[in-house]
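User: Could you check the structure of this?
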Amino acid sequence: MITYKGIQINVVDNLYVETKELYSYISKEIRVVIGNNQPENYIEVIKYLIDYIVDSKPIISENQNIGYYSWLLQFRIDEDNCYELYEANADGSGFNKGCDTTISVVRKQGELCLENNLTPLFPNFNQSVVISDGVYEGKDIEGIRYDSPHDESGWYLITDDYDDNIKSLKMVHFYHVAFARPDVLKYLAIPFGHRFIMKEGNIEIYKDEEE
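Assistant: Sure, the predicted structure tokens are below.
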């Protein structure tokens, strides 16, 4: 057992991680099943949620979604009247119990930034991304990230199908890109002022010379 911000976090029989005393904030405890990762990974997810709940004091309801860095979780009431965590499927087809995809996405984004001596700036599901034709079709991408308002990720994802007509660009939600292009997902926490260039499946990262 550990205590975080006055809330107990327990690993129960190596099967799941759950809170105790969060009830006073949201009238329920939170639980997440342990899957393919070490318990400490799930504890970090629970800590993130405790931060959100203790600091923001939100009203949580059944089937409510919450972003965890660059992925999406959902609260569902289980048989013990706890909020059990589910996560968006990698292809956007629905939700599965647990948070293994969530942990994997965030870990890969963080590791890639660390390898390139960058501080990750995680986009979230509700932010916008500007794309050209060819992105959803799996073509090679050049991605440039500009400093942008909070509701925008700052990403412009361009393929060779782009005809230099700015009116042909489309603004879409981040999650559409996350589901359609898992091959570039780990690059999308690269901070403002950088770009990546994909060529035949290989990707290189650069500081944007235009900044």
